[in-house]
Amino acid sequence: MRVNYEKWSLRKRYFWLRIWEDYEIGYLDRELLPLLVLLNRDRDIYTTSSCSGRIVVVDGNVPWIREEASVVFKSHIPVTTVDLDFVFRETPHRSYWLVVTGPIIHFSTTSLRKALKLLKRARTAGFKHSGVMHVSSTRGVFIELITGVYMTQLLRIQDNVLVSLSDINKVIFTFNKALIEGKWRLQKLYEVFRKYLPETPDPIIETELNSREIRLVKLTPIDIFYEMCGDLCRTA
Amino acid sequence: MRVNYEKWSLRKRYFWLRIWEDYEIGYLDRELLPLLVLLNRDRDIYTTSSCSGRIVVVDGNVPWIREEASVVFKSHIPVTTVDLDFVFRETPHRSYWLVVTGPIIHFSTTSLRKALKLLKRARTAGFKHSGVMHVSSTRGVFIELITGVYMTQLLRIQDNVLVSLSDINKVIFTFNKALIEGKWRLQKLYEVFRKYLPETPDPIIETELNSREIRLVKLTPIDIFYEMCGDLCRTA
Predict the structure, then answer these.
(1) What is the mean pLDDT of chain B?
(2) Which member of A131, A160, A167 has the closest CB to residue B170?
(3) Any chain A CB within 8 A of the CB of B63?
(4) What is the value of ipTM here, to two decimals?
(5) Is the separation of the CB atoms in A141 and A112 below 8 Å?
(6) Contacts of B148 in chain A (CB under 8 A)
(7) Domain spans of chain B, in order of start
(8) Phi and psi (nearest 5°) for A62?
(9) CB distance B167–A167 less than 8 Å?
(10) B133 contacts chain A (CB < 8 A)
(11) For FRET with A226, which of A143, B11, B179, B197 sits at 20 to 30 Å CA-CA?
């Protein structure tokens, strides 16, 4: 299947502008920015919704998101026992699950050949479960990069607290460590891709970047993470 | 990239014979057999190592498998509190994690077109995280089908038991339900693929199947699951 470059470029334009909208309203994971910019600087790549890794509490019968489950707490930096106080005070509709997920990166390329090269490199950075998800002439070759960093803990079923107040800090410690492992894999991915991208620079993106002068773009993901949470991230 | 059909067929032959070796020594997940046979009956598909979904206990700092972690308990059917007695009696080297994973199916096709068609259908059966992992001329277009069914529970860190003996049954109940949800997705996948496969029957496989007369091949995955664990599976 051949990608329709004209239509594909319109989508690139749309998603590129969305990055900056999300950035300005504070919706974008800031540690993602260096990687997103690096990928988009290549003429044959655009990124879509991605995540730098996070800890959430889900209220549901299962920890994966579905209609009858909802995220009641979310953090992209390590959490403290104070953050999870509510678990002991408020009864969930169903159950409280603590969930940590590593980074998930979505992007599209104009060719399968390029997609497979990037996949191979991503795997060396610890994104083992990555693959080509779809291929279409307007959306391009769509890729998900994902690590195996994922843990859940059932904390409370209705009124039945399963992990005591005195043990919760150990669970939090373990989950924070996993979160940070995820952030390091994001850093590794950035380093691996930086050696190789952009293959063919995208002149529109280059021009815009020069006019925007965003400080964060000159940092690496882990620099930004440390800026966001300081000692909490280094020592967890 | 074009697949070298001759070399690809040799690999199909190898993996097909391995299914029956594994079956005979009891190493194969029996519920997988109808799906594996269905896929291999198509001339342009062969399957490799797959899993029907399981519950394990991992001894490690993290629940994902790596060098310094090991599986100390494994079950493809629902577990009971008796199965997990050892968690309270024996100290782990690191930590005990209870982990449930849904089915994971690996297969190769001779064309990207076919791979993408199968991926699309698999997604409708709840295998949302599936994708093309590799492409090579001898191995073909290699696909992983995977669901989001995955939970972990940190049960014990060294001498510190985090989920009490009186609560473990609730955790087990929840994990058993997830295991069964995974088995139903396997059943759904089988039903979705059965409407469509084999597109072009593989004459060698058809001849062999007739000579083998394996009873299980005539059942569906969920039939076999029920045969394996009876009421435990229906009521969990």
Answers:
(1) 93
(2) A160
(3) yes
(4) 0.93
(5) yes
(6) 64
(7) 5-235
(8) -130, 160
(9) no
(10) yes
(11) A143
Joined tokens for residue A13: 């334009």
- Chain B touched by A63 (CB under 8 Å): yes
Give residue-wise pLDDT tens across range B15-64: 999 999 999 998 899 999 999 999 999 999 999 999 999 999 999 999 98
Smallest Cα distance from B153 to chain A, Å: 5
Q: Are A140 and A174 in contact (CB under 8 A)?
A: no
Q: Which of residues 84-103 of A touch B (CB under 8 A)?
A: 95
Cite the beta strand spans of chain A per DSSP E: 45-47, 54-59, 70-75, 95-101, 104-109, 131-136, 140-146, 150-157, 160-161
Q: Are the beta carbons of B133 and A154 separated by less than 8 Å?
A: no
Question: What pLDDT sits at residue B217?
Answer: 84
Task: Give yes or no for A133 touching B (CB within 8 A).
Answer: yes
Interface contact B112-A134, CB threshold 8 A = no
Cβ distance of A129 and B119 shorter than 8 Å: no
Tell me what percent of the residues of chain B surpass a pLDDT of 90: 85
Q: Does B70 touch chain A (CB under 8 A)?
A: no
CATH superfamily of A5-235: tRNA wybutosine-synthesizing-like (3.30.1960.10)
Residue A23, both tokens: 């950035």
pLDDT in tens, A75-126: 999 999 999 999 999 999 999 999 999 999 999 999 999 999 999 999 999 9
Give the residue-averaged pLDDT of A3-14.
95
Q: Which of B204, B223, B175 is nearest to B54 (CA)?
A: B175
Q: Which residues pair with A146 in a beta bridge?
A: A104
What does the DSSP assignment read for B152-163?
Answer: EEEEEETTEESS
